Input
Amino acid sequence: MASPSTPGPVRRGIVEAQFVEDVHTFMDGKEGDAVMKPLQERYQQYKLQEQTLTSRRALLEQKIPELKRNLAIVNKLQEQKEAEKEAEVDFELADQIFARATIKDPESVCLWLGANVMVEYSLEEANLLLQRQLENATASLEAVIEDLHFLRDQVTTTEVTLARVYNHEVKLRRERRLAEAAQAGDDT
Output
């Protein structure tokens, strides 16, 4: 059986925790501290990974609705163009300051790409780009959620192993004390 402190199979950067079925056999000839230290380090790694994945999940959950809104706006502009209608839009000039504009025959839109970069795209290109980004963000969110579930299983397995090793060490110390007390009682 593999040691819980040695790396198991890795799944998308998350090392699989090894479950210890028989703690007595596993701990035979090993010091408790020598086993506990790598387990505690692995536990801390899992908690750090969990924080990273949780913040990534929050960012994706915020990004997906924004992509959907942007895609809906581009689709609306395309519909207005095809119907040869003027599009009346409200847009934000500054915080809580809006203006109304009439757009005749929209040909393109400007999209923020990040890092203070804005690029102008045709409506068709913008639609394709936003759809691709939405698909990628949705797939990434599903992967992150799956990784979080897997990671939580590894955290639980590691916590159980830590508790079992600790309890085994407590039991051994108690048995040693009782044996020493019995031997001290026999000596008198």
